Structures are given as C-alpha cells and as structure tokens.
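Hey everyone, long-time lurker, first post.

I ran two proteins through the pipeline my lab uses and got sequence/structure pairs for each. Pasting them in order. The first:
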Amino acid sequence: MVYLTRKAEFSASHYYHNPQFTAEENARIFGKCNNPNGHGHNYTLEVTVKGAVDPRSGFVVDLKKLKDVMNREVLDVLDHRFLNKEVPEFLTQIPTTENLAIAIWQRLEPKLKAAQLHRVRVYETPDLFVDFYGEA
C-alpha cells in the first residue's frame, strides 16, 4: 500500500453562528468569529490517497486526474467564497475547520476511482490543522 498526498491552497471567508443560540451565547462561544461580516483565512489542503502501484503505469493515481478532481470538487467551490453564504454545505452548518474537512471528504470520496481516499487535512493557520479520515 502506497500513500500519496497532494497539496493545494485556497482562501475563503466565514463566520461562526448558531441560530439556535442567543446573541449572548453566540458571542460567548464564538467571540470575534461571530462577526456577521466574517473574516478570512488562507487555507492549505492536503488530500492523501492510498492504493497499490499499478505495474503498468507506476502510479497509485494519475496526479493530473487527482488535481483535476480537487480543483473541480473543492477549489472551484471554496476558493474566494464567503462559505456561509455561497457554499451549499454551510448554508445550514457552521463552517468550522472540522466541518470544512468533512465537507471536502464528502465531495472527493465518491469522485475518486483509481485510489482510495485516506485523509483530508485542512490547515486554517500554520499551527492549526484538522485531519479527517472518513469516520463522521
């Protein structure tokens, strides 16, 4: 089994707000991140796939095809977007880094044919990242 990781970057804005909370609860729990005008991040995404090396091509997966899937399913949807208002998953879900990693997994997993999705890692800042392995 070989593990292969492809990295990409995107920028997006969001805010944290739970409509079931009072204004005071939202402010207490989410602090500055509850500002309805949002704030932005430059995210780093790592997608790790696993599989056997094809003896004919020498690949676990064609990197061009993996890049195309990541662009179409993730980057084109998330890059330079206000997540709460422009991305369907986050119209009703708080766009935390944890939920972002899960949403990316759910977008990618059914589209990968040659290799199995192993991990989605999303960096919100250089020292904060979330790993998701497909067990929600």
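...and the second, right after it:
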Amino acid sequence: MTITTITTKGQMTLPKDIRDRLGLKPGDLIEVTLEGQRILLIPKTLHLDDITSILPKPARVVSIEEMNEAILEATAAHAL
C-alpha cells in the first residue's frame, strides 16, 4: 500500500509505480467516482495500443509506397 498526501489545492500525486503499471502518462484522463467511502480512479485515456487491439486486421498488408500513391491519387481527384 502506498500513501499520498492531498495538497491545500486538493491535488495529490499518483505514485510512480501505479502510473507505470497502468501505463499512465501526463495529460491522461482519469474518472473519479465514489463507492461508499472509497474513491475510485479509473483511467479513461486510450493509447494507440488500446485502439489497435480493437481494430479489425486489414485484408492485406499495404506498403508505405502504396499508401503514398493512394493519397496522391485521392488528392489529385479532389483538386480537379
């Protein structure tokens, strides 16, 4: 168990080992709720790894060159 202090502004520092275990970074969002006399902190920021794990696998692998070519074709089509 780790103990932290609440400042006069109502702020606290989440211990580094907890931040590291949850992969929390500066700017991440945390939901704060009460359950009886307990304070629950629930991470709400999705990281790239979280998002990619829920996306379907692509039908085929596309190279960077193919992506660049498709981008050029699409922008050329909109420029006309």
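Reply from user beta_strand_b:
Welcome! Quick read of the second one: Helices lie at 16-22, 48-54, 64-79. The longest helix spans residues 64-79.
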